[in-house]
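About this split. The held-out portion is used to measure sequence recovery: a designer receives only the C-alpha cells and must propose an amino acid at every position. Recovery is the fraction of positions where the proposal matches the reference. Here is one held-out target exactly as it appears in the evaluation file.
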C-alpha cells in the first residue's frame, strides 16, 4: 500500500498493492496498522455504497458540521469519478483550496478525506458505484452543503452543466455558510 500526499496536508491518495494472477486480482483496501503509520488513526464505523446511472452527474459538495463531521475513505468500485474535496477548516493554510483526484475501478486508488472538508463526486462514466467508509454517523441536523460552482473556490470540474438534484444546484456559497471547523 502506497500513501501519496496531495497539495493539501492530510488529504491522501491511497494506492493499494494489486496482486494479479490467472484468477483475477486481490487488493488490501484497508489496513489499520498501515493507515496509522501514515497518520490516519481513526476508526471507521460505517460503510456506504452509492450508484449513479449517468455520466456527468455531480453529487456534492456535502459535509457534516462539527461535532458530527466525518472522515472518509472513498473508492470507486465501478466506472470513473472525479473526487473533489474543499478545505473548510478556517485556520488551515489551505482553507478554500481543493484537491481533485480521478478514482477508477481500474486504478483502485482511494482518497482519504479528513474532517473539515466538503466532498463531491462527478461521474465520468455511466453506471458508477462508489464505496466509502466513514468514522462518524450521519446526523441530519448537521448536514451542510456548498455550491459546487462557488466562484471563491473555482473548482475546475471539466464540465459546464452537470446533472444535479435541486438541493445541490441551490446550495449556498461559502460566504453564506457558518462553518465551525
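Reference sequence for scoring:
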Amino acid at each position: 500500500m502506497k500513501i501519496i500526499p496531495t497539495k493539501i496536508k492530510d488529504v491522501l491518495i491511497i494506492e493499494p498493492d494489486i496482486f494479479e494472477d490467472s484468477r483475477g486480482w486481490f487488493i488490501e483496501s484497508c489496513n489499520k496498522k498501515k493507515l496509522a503509520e501514515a497518520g490516519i488513526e481513526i476508526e471507521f464505523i460505517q460503510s456506504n455504497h452509492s450508484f449513479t446511472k449517468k455520466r456527468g452527474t455531480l453529487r456534492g459538495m456535502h459535509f457534516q458540521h462539527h461535532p458530527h463531521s466525518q472522515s472518509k475513505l472513498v473508492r470507486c468500485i465501478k466506472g470513473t469519478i472525479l473526487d473533489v474535496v474543499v478545505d473548510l477548516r478556517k485556520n488551515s493554510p489551505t482553507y478554500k483550496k481543493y484537491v481533485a483526484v480521478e478514482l477508477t475501478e481500474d486504478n483502485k486508488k482511494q482518497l482519504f478525506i479528513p474532517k473539515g472538508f466538503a466532498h463531491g463526486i462527478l461521474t465520468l462514466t455511466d453506471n458508477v458505484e462508489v464505496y466509502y467508509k466513514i468514522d462518524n454517523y450521519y446526523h441530519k441536523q448537521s448536514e451542510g452543503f456548498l455550491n459546487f460552482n462557488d466562484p471563491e473556490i473555482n473548482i475546475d470540474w471539466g464540465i459546464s452543466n452537470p446533472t444535479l438534484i435541486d438541493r445541490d444546484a441551490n446550495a449556498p456559497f461559502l460566504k453564506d455558510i457558518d462553518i465551525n471547523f
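Annotator remark: The mean pLDDT is 95.
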